[in-house]
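Lab meeting prep.
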Amino acid sequence: MSAKKSQTVDFEQSLVELETLVERLEHGDLPLEEALRQFERGMELARSCETALVKAEQRVEILLQKSAEADPQPFDPEPDA
């Protein structure tokens, strides 16, 4: 599995786990210590997701800059066959 694919899977898995943790915490039926552990794990996952999103945003910005700096290419449609 490529690194890009792995990062995407990790982000998606982290997001699913985070959503599950939020649902468990919203129910409010966890003992205090377990709720704190779940909250800590949720904060770790949120930071991880935020980092992944920032990296993705930076990549998009780089691609947009490269696109804006590219030389214009003439449009040469292929004749109909």
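Slide two material, second protein:
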Amino acid sequence: MSNTPSVPNAIEVRNLTKTYRNSVKALDGLNLRVAAGSIFALLGPNGAGKSTTIKILTTLCAPDSGEARVAGIDVLREPQRVRHSIGCVAQKSGVDETATGRENLTLQGQLHDLRGPDLKQRVETLLQRFSLASAAARVASTYSGGMKRKLDIAMGLIHRPQVLFLDEPTTGLDPEARAELWDEIGRLSAEGLSILLTTHYLEEADALASRVVVLNRGKIVAQGTSQEIKGLVSGRKIRCITRLSVETLVTLPTVTSVTPDRDGIILTAVDSDAAVRALFLADSTAHGVEISGGALEDAFLELTKN
């Protein structure tokens, strides 16, 4: 997706702090790294510091202290270079509804100094990629919500950025349009694009992100894979009937606790699939297996309740 040499980390943040005039500390020593080519989800309740973090990384806001680099570029020392290296898709659409899809993309390309045949080819490539070619000559006010969101993302990609910021990319979309956009985001990442995603749809982060960070009150309260974060709180509950002893069950992969129950045994596991596979390998007669709990939303609510 980019003509610029890749860097080990798409984003590096060290000890970022930011306090607003009303004495609200939006960021309190934030540290994070986003691996190049990954989808990274930044989660948190309203007021957690997500928007401030994005504003700093996209050069729209300066921190009180700390450092941040995007695509290997210092956001404070070289903001213009950062802007050329990133694409931003805000929660509120940037599409001009009085212009056609093709005109929206062309104007966005011109803002990034693209001209002539290169711009024309890039516009047509993105229209095809996002299945907008047949509607390219229509004004965007006639587009569905899903089509407008595709156009938003295409506009963010027009200049071939290294890092793409997606702020609530599927808000308001129907399930079919959301699934289509998830597929496209996955393909972009597979091609090497680094993506930082903010979303209130926790199943979206669960499905897309290779790494998740949960913010609360300007601090990171949890980070890791989606499965790891689920396991930080309680893990998934596996109810089963088995002849294995408690001592054996606690040695199964990712199992964190074993509780006898009148109807059998309850296992708590970080990765329920791995635990159930191991259970059946150790006891082929195990039965009555039921899995519950362990949604990312459960962990999120527990981690951010204070």
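Talking points for slide two:
The first strand starts at residue 9 and ends at 19.
Residues 1-6 have pLDDT under 50 and may be disordered.
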